[in-house]
């Protein structure tokens, strides 16, 4: 073959931002090499959740090549085409489902077949954005880019709290050939606040207590507040069955058959059962369809001090206020998703107003440049009025004219 | 005589008079007025049938919607690239002549020889790039992909040739550009009628190929070897007003039709290895879409490359400036064709054209044109000049060197460039050289040291901080502010001393390698100032340099310690004081607003300051002003000031202070190091680092003091750092493992997208709460959105109305005007003047009017607006936004955001080009750089829908290599043909179907779905036949394939039970059987069955059941599908690498048939495949036997009856045979004879009798007729008599009525 041939391989060091890199590599078709993954640590190489993530990527693609060296400190990834279809995946419980779902949200619109995936694992934890938040914030964001339809949904079948997990969600997303550009610069004013207070394997009263305390803070700003309480028990609270135990590598520990624990919840399974916990997530919605979110979850069982639900609710409400102070048209966890979809638009100008950029987003911008040669125009905007929170960032870009190469035409 | 001359009167049949008369006539008839038939005869036009009405309505709607195209966003740039006009036709048809004539028509210049594309200015808004296309398939394919307009020359005296049709087909596949036919050689026709007929015939054929009504031009004849001037002029007019439709592939991919090529390879490398890979630069207008740097491109005929560098150059063939003139002046009629030796480069020694003149002249013009903002302008212009200089100087070098020989040119390369740039100072020259060569080695020692250190430091600090690490940015922002306040001041100061002797039109912006990331105008300016100071530092003014360093250094220290050191000069101290003042003031505020808003508020501040500073570039700008400004700023951005204040005074708080703290501990750790270094001085290099970090920040923040730099600027340094890390070695053996924990931590940090709030604000406080009050609907609204306000306005608009029923007149609030004016007066006393008031009132009126109009428009237009209109409107809006968004930015910055936009004249550098490309360069062949989209450079399986071309004589065979033209590429590959079965299975075909589409899969470059392609068997030589073998479209891309091939496994029964049989010979082992358990099997005779289970012996035998009993002679088979593997063969056609003159002789892989033909190998046919006469044995079948029981059961009618055998007659019933005596024999013979005679007699008599009867019947008939006749006459007589009698009676009865009555 004459000339170069094939896209150039990108090389990175360290395991941070692994998801970004793999996702962008898949979308841009450029091979990727990551070296020195925890090379100097006592426990070198990829962690189980990262391996699990790579497995997931392998599942949704066709023809990708993944090479990991023996110690797991080097990863070579040559992306294939996104395939999709109906899938199942058992997520490692060391990170919540949000960790995996965030990347799937980036990839799902560009599959060959519409993605319909069941993810099992931890639905809510303290580290990653929970499934509830992603459902409330990311899906409306996708809709703005023209990815909508009935099949776009996240359904929480069961909740599972860390450390044992046992939750289950269904994520379905339609396929698009091209995305629409967006002009999303006016967040509008917040018209209502919604939320979910969930309690898993604890007293249902916990949820009510959280709701009360959160309302007490937020009522000073807005009367239209409604926080749902979601008490999960039995099987829907992440009651483990053999399958889940197997997935967690505890094959022999669980003595009961699958059908049995599907049908019953008694004290007999308690020692094996999933973890208790509770938490709250709050969603502020504006008249222009901007959605800002905040969430908090209790400490996992056996880690840290017990948290009072009142305190949790109040803190979460304050976090929401903080998020509102930051402002923007996209909440801080979904900044990168919005920027990615803008990048992958047609060759038109897209604009979005964001709050201060998170470190994750900043790194994402750098990655966007190295994978897609795209730079954003970044303008600082201080709100014209005094009482509208902090400074905002106006991000503008011209899409790269991306089109879904996987989709079949008839 | 007079009478004779008098004209006879003729009644007018046409004209106004006749019209009038006719009208009058009609009027007289009473139908004149109503001319409209509909009116005159309305009944004829009523609805006859509702169904029919509906149908016609549907039809009209269908026709209407058929006209609609899906609206697309109009992405044509404001200044479009030249239109590519491809002149195509068979040889000797007059292509070159036409091009020459066109060029002469537009530019009044006569080109002797045309090589490669020629760009000319054809009008005020249009340029043309004209290129000739020969009849090499490669060239035709390439040019069809980039053409906007095709001039298709046809020799009328000969008619259409294959090339024409081939080119048309190529065009159809790759998007259909505008095509205009031109008939030449029309002067060969002597007979006018024949000419007419030929024209008509050719026109209609052309129309069927292109579209009915396509433009066909006639060039009637030659005058002095040229076409007629008027005809060419007309053609030119047509070309320059033509509109083009956007083609999908072209608008979605950037491409360049290169009009200039230079070899940039190091001559030394070539000397060592003449076959080494080359580095070349190609020039041309960018077309299609935005081109990004470092993107992938494909050069048809050469291969895939990665762009190593792109830069835009001033337009060598620019459109005239905007002016209101009807036509172009001679000066503006530019022509640019470097390959032909026109426009900038010398090819001949007796050159009429000026070498390198174009670009420089252009640049001078620019400078002259805009003398206003000198500094800015000069910066920008010099800026562009470096590009041109860089490009052109390299160019000139090689252009010279090529004819001369490359050995001794090496030194000369550098010299002219240097000379150009040495203006006033020596120090500057070196920097430029540095930039030109893009190597840091030759850098000034001091600079390099400094910069290296900077980088290191920056890398240290910023690697550690992940992007916008709190501590870092925090520290930075502290420094930034200090420096932003401080450094421009100092820079200014230095400048006052130096600036006079240096012209500002130097090229300082490029000195700093970090700065070439972006150069917006004001930033550039800032950078220039800074750089100038720096250069001063480096070059001549050591003192100042140290001063600068020290000052910034001390600044840094001050920032961290909050002490003012003695060595600082007055400026610093002043600043210091000011700042401390600020800090004291804002401390209170700080307490309230404990957090800052985000990443880069401080940077913003500094940016704005730098801006303001750089704007006023007077040298007299004094420190007072600076001070004033800063103090102004206090009010403007108290928060920032507050922050700096805190930094200055409370170093301990510093670390905790910031918001975005991702890795707090690490930063603290780092900070500690810094501080310890400062205080204890234990690690000298680290101390140095801090100083240099300060300087680095000073520079960095001045140059691009914004978030963009923070995000995109540091990414580069990250990579640099990586390299440094590797370089650290001790004694050449051991690597020093530095404990730079923060960078490691960052690299292996927690991968989480959440943006944690590190230091939440106290939301119980009223002030804090009020900071977001307006984010809620309960808060205050903007003027234009406030419901109350809007209501009020509405009232103003609609306030006045009269109630018609009651007659009451309602007035809108009459006092509003007054109120408002009063309010205004209250608000600002200054505006109390009546003029202002009036203006205000006028404005308001206008506003009101506008609103009313809007409302009216909305109401009025609503009815018509359809989905289609909405969509169009939306697209239009998007297009406008696209144009407007980056309009105000200068090209350097714009290029960063958008990429290089179409219409720019770009220079593209490419490395690792095969040397044959340069050695065998032929300007006649087009060089196209086609940009590739994401992952279009990868290879995979591509599925096509393919149809053999109906004019191609052969059918195509699976697994024969085929040359495809797909996307930008031409390549040879091995396709497999398949057809989709009803159940979705892709079944392999051995050959393409004759007149049907089929599928094809091949291994090759991934190209977006919906892209058209064409296939040819070979690209070499010419054949009389049509060359395009197949056409089609890409359907799907995948990494795996689904094509299968039928495979029948056969077996034989070896034991037959009733319906069960044992079959052997189909499989080889039990395992294989197990795999096929339950599979459907069949015998050749059509008995269906199923595989049941494997038998123990023999191996591979199995039990199967069938719907009927088998015979031993039956053959059993199972039908299976076997996946086909596709050969991974992808071979780009490298026709441009062939030596000149042989470029159309590229041969790739040959087909088996060709190979066999070439080597003379005869195909050995399988004997079994030969056809033999079929000999069939006659088969005898046994009689049908119906069992007795069955027979009994049958109904009588179906019972076999006749076939029943008679029983044997008993012997006694046998009749004895009669044996005659001779006498008896005689008797019987006689009797026989007699009876024969008798028979004959009887026969004769019979015939006679029949005759007699016939005659008798005849006679009888005659008699009968006569009889009838007589009877008739008699009857007549009787009736007549009877009639007479009747008459008489009547008469008598009339006479005597009474009698008559009686008689009755």
Walkthrough of the structure:
The complex is a heterodimer of chains A (410) and B (1304). Chain A has ten helices and 18 strands. In chain A, 60% of the residues are buried. By secondary structure, chain A is an alpha+beta fold. Chain B contains 40 helices and 35 strands. A seven-stranded mixed sheet of chain B has the order 6-5-4-1-3-2-14, sandwiched between helices. Chain B has a six-stranded antiparallel β-barrel with strand order 9-11-19-13-12-20. Chain B has a six-stranded antiparallel β-barrel with strand order 29-30-33-32-31-34. At the A-B interface, helix 1, helix 8, helix 10, strand 17 and strand 18 of A face strand 12, strand 13, helix 27, helix 28 and helix 33 of B.
In short, what is this structure?
The complex is a heterodimer of chains A (410) and B (1304). Chain A has 410 residues and is an alpha+beta fold.
Provide key terms for this protein:
heterodimer, A: 410 residues, alpha+beta, four-stranded mixed β-sheet, 18 strands, 28% helix, disordered N terminus, B: 1304 residues, six-stranded antiparallel β-barrel, 40 helices, 35 strands, disordered C terminus
């Amino acid at each position: 073959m004459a000339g170069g041939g094939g896209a150039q391989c990108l090389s990175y060091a360290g395991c941070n931002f692994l998801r970004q890199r793999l996702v962008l590599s898949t979308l841009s078709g450029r091979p990727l090499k990551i070296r020195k993954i925890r090379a100097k640590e006592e426990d070198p190489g990829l962690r189980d959740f990262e391996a699990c993530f790579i497995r997931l990527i392998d599942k949704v693609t066709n023809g990708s090549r993944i090479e990991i060296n023996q110690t797991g400190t080097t990863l070579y990834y040559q992306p294939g085409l996104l395939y999709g279809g109906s899938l199942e995946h058992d997520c490692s419980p060391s990170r919540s489902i949000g960790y995996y779902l965030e990347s799937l949200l980036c990839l799902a619109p560009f599959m060959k077949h519409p993605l319909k995936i069941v993810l099992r694992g931890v639905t809510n934890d303290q580290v990653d954005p929970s499934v509830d938040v992603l459902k409330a914030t990311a899906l409306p964001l996708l809709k703005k880019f023209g990815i909508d339809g009935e099949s776009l949904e996240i359904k929480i079948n069961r909740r599972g709290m860390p450390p044992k997990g046992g939750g289950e969600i269904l994520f379905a997303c339609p396929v698009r050939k091209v995305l629409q550009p967006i002009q999303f610069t006016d967040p509008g004013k917040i018209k209502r606040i919604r939320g979910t207070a969930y309690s898993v394997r604890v007293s249902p009263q916990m949820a009510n207590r959280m709701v009360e305390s959160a309302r007490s803070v937020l009522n000073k700003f807005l009367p239209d507040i409604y926080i749902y309480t979601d008490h999960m028990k039995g099987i829907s609270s992440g009651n483990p069955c053999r399958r889940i135990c197997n997935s967690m590598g505890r094959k022999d520990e669980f003595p009961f058959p699958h059908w049995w624990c599907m049908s019953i919840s008694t004290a007999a399974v308690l020692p094996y059962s999933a973890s208790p916990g509770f938490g709250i997530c709050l969603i502020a919605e504006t008249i222009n369809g901007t959605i800002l979110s905040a969430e908090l979850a209790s400490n996992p069982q056996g880690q840290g001090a017990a948290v009072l639900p009142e305190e949790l609710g109040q803190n979460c409400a304050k976090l929401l206020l903080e998020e509102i102070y930051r402002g923007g048209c996209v909440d801080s966890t979904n900044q990168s998703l919005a920027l990615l979809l803008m990048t992958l638009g047609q060759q038109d100008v897209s604009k979005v107003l964001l709050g201060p950029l998170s470190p994750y987003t900043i790194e994402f911008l750098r990655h966007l440049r190295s994978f897609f040669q795209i730079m954003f125009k970044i303008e600082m905007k201080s709100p014209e009025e005094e009482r509208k929170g902090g400074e905002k960032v106006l991000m503008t870009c011209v899409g790269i004219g991306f089109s879904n190469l996987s989709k079949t035409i008839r | 005589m007079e009478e004779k001359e008098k004209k006879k009167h003729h009644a007018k049949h046409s004209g106004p008079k006749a019209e009038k008369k006719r009208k009058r006539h009609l009027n007289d008839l009473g139908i004149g007025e109503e001319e409209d038939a509909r009116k005159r005869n309305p009944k004829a036009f009523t609805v006859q049938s509702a169904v029919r009405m509906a149908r016609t309505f549907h039809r009209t709607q269908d026709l209407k919607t058929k006209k609609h195209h899906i609206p697309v966003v109009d992405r044509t740039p404001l200044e479009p690239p030249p239109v590519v006009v491809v002149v195509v036709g068979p040889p000797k048809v007059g292509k070159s002549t036409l091009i020459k004539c066109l060029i002469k028509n537009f530019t009044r210049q006569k080109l002797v020889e045309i090589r490669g594309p020629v760009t000319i200015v054809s009008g005020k808004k249009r340029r043309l790039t004209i290129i000739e296309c020969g009849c090499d398939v490669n060239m035709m394919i390439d040019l069809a992909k980039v053409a906007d307009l095709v001039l298709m020359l046809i020799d009328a005296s000969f008619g259409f040739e294959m090339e024409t049709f081939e080119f048309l087909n190529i065009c159809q596949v790759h998007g259909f550009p505008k095509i205009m036919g031109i008939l030449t050689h029309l002067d060969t026709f002597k007979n006018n009628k024949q000419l007419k007929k030929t024209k008509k015939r050719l026109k209609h054929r052309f129309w069927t190929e292109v579209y009915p009504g396509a433009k066909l031009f006639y060039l009637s004849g030659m005058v002095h070897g040229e076409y007629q001037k008027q005809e060419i002029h007309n053609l030119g007019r047509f070309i320059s007003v033509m509109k083009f439709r956007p083609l999908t592939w072209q608008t979605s991919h950037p491409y360049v039709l290169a009009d200039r090529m230079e070899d940039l390879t190091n001559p030394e490398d070539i000397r060592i290895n003449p076959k080494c890979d080359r580095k070349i630069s190609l020039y041309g207008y960018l077309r299609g879409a935005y081109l990004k740097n470092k993107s992938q491109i494909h050069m048809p005929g050469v291969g895939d490359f990665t762009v190593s560098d792109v830069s835009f150059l001033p337009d060598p063939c620019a459109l005239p400036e905007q002016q209101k003139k009807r036509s172009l002046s001679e000066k503006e009629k530019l022509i640019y064709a470097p390959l032909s030796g026109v426009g900038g480069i010398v090819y001949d020694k007796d050159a009429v054209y000026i070498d390198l003149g174009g670009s420089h002249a252009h640049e001078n013009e620019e400078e002259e044109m805009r003398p206003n903002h000198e500094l800015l302008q000069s910066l920008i212009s010099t800026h562009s000049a470096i590009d041109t200089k860089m490009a052109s100087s390299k160019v000139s070098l090689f252009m010279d060197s090529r004819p001369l020989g490359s050995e001794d040119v090496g030194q000369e390369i550098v010299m002219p460039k240097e000379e150009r740039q040495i203006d006033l100072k020596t120090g500057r020259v070196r920097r430029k050289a540095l930039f030109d060569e893009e190597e840091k080695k030759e850098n000034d020692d001091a600079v390099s040291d400094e910069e290296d250190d900077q980088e290191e430091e920056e890398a240290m600090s910023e690697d550690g901080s992940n992007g916008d690490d709190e501590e870092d940015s925090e520290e930075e922002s502290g420094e930034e502010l200090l420096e932003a306040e401080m450094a421009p001041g100092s820079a200014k100061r230095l400048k006052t001393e130096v600036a006079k002797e240096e012209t500002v039109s130097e090229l300082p912006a490029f000195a700093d390698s970090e700065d070439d990331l972006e150069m917006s105008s004001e930033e550039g300016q800032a950078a220039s100032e800074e750089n100038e100071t720096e250069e001063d530092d480096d070059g001549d003014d050591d003192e100042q340099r140290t001063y600068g360093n020290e000052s910034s250094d001390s600044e840094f220290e001050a920032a961290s310690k909050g002490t003012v050191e003695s060595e600082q000069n007055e400026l610093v101290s002043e600043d210091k004081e000011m700042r401390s003042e600020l800090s004291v003031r804002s401390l209170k505020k700080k307490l309230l607003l404990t957090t800052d808003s985000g990443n880069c508020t401080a940077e913003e501040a500094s940016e704005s300051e730098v801006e303001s500073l750089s704007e006023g570039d007077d040298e007299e700008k004094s420190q007072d002003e600076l001070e004033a400004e800063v103090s102004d700023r206090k009010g403007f951005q108290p928060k920032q000031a507050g922050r700096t204040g805190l930094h200055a005074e409370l170093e301990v708080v510093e670390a905790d202070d910031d918001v975005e703290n991702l890795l707090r501990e690490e930063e603290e750790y780092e900070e500690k190091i810094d501080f310890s270094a400062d205080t204890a001085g234990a690690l000298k290099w680290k101390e140095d680092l801090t100083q240099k970090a300060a300087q680095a920040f000073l520079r960095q923040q001045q140059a691009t003091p914004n978030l963009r730099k923070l995000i995109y600027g540091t990414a580069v340094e990250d990579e640099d750092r990586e390299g440094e890390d590797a370089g650290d070695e001790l004694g050449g053996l051991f690597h020093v493992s530095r404990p730079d924990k923060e960078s490691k931590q960052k690299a292996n940090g927690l991968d989480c997208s959440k943006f944690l709030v590190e230091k939440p604000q106290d939301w119980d406080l009223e002030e804090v709460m009020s900071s977001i009050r307006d984010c809620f609907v309960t808060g205050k609204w903007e003027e234009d959105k406030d419901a109350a306000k809007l209501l009020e306005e509405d009232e103003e608009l609609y306030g006045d109305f009269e109630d018609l029923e009651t007659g009451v007149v309602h007035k809108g609030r009459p006092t509003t005007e007054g109120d408002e004016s009063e309010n205004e007066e209250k608000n600002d006393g200054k505006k109390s003047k009546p003029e202002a008031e009036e203006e205000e009132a006028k404005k308001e009126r206008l506003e009101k009017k506008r609103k009313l109009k809007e409302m009216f428009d909305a109401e009025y237009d609503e009815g018509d607006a359809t989905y289609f209109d909405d969509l169009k409107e939306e697209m239009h809006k998007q297009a406008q936004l696209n144009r407007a968004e980056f309009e105000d930015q200068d090209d350097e910055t714009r290029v960063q955001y958008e990429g290089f936009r179409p219409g720019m004249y770009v220079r593209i550098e490419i490395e690792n080009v095969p040397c044959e490309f340069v050695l065998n360069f032929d300007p006649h062949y087009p060089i196209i750089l086609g940009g590739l989209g994401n992952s279009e450079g990868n290879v995979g399986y591509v599925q096509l829908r393919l149809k053999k071309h109906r004019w191609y004589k052969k059918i195509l065979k699976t697994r024969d290599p085929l040359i495809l033209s797909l996307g930008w590429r031409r390549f040879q590959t091995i396709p497999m043909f398949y057809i989709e079965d009803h159940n979705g299975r892709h079944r392999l075909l051995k050959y393409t179907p004759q007149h049907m589409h089929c599928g094809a899969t091949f291994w090759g470059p991934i190209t977006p779905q919906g892209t058209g392609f064409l296939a040819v068997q070979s690209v070499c030589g010419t054949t009389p036949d049509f060359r395009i073998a197949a056409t089609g479209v890409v359907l799907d891309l995948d990494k795996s394939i689904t094509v299968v091939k039928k495979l029948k496994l056969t077996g034989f029964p070896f034991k037959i039970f009733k319906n069960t049989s044992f079959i052997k010979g189909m499989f080889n082992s039990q395992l294989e059987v197990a795999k096929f358990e339950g599979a459907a099997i069949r015998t050749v005779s059509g008995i269906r069955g199923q595989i049941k289970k494997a038998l123990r012996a023999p191996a591979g035998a199995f039990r199967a059941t069938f719907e009927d009993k088998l015979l031993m002679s039956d053959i059993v088979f199972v039908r299976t599908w076997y996946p086909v593997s596709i050969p991974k063969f992808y071979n780009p056609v490298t026709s441009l690498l062939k030596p000149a003159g042989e470029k159309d002789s590229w041969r790739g892989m040959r087909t088996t048939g060709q190979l066999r033909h070439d080597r003379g190998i005869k195909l050995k046919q399988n004997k079994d495949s030969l056809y033999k006469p079929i000999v069939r044995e006659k088969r005898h079948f046994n009689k049908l036997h119906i069992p007795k029981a069955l027979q009994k059961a049958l109904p009588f009618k179906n019972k076999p009856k006749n076939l029943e055998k008679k029983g044997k007659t008993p012997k006694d019933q046998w009749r004895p045979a009669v044996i005659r005596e001779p006498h008896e024999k005689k008797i019987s013979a006689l009797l026989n004879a007699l009876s024969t005679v008798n028979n004959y007699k009887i026969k004769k008599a019979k015939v006679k009798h029949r005759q007699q009867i016939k005659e008798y019947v005849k006679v009888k008939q005659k008699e009968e007729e006569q009889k009838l006749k007589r009877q008739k006459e008699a009857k007549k007589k009787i009736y007549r008599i009877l009639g007479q009698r009747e008459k008489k009676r009547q008469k008598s009865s009339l006479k005597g009525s009474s009698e008559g009555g009686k008689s009755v």
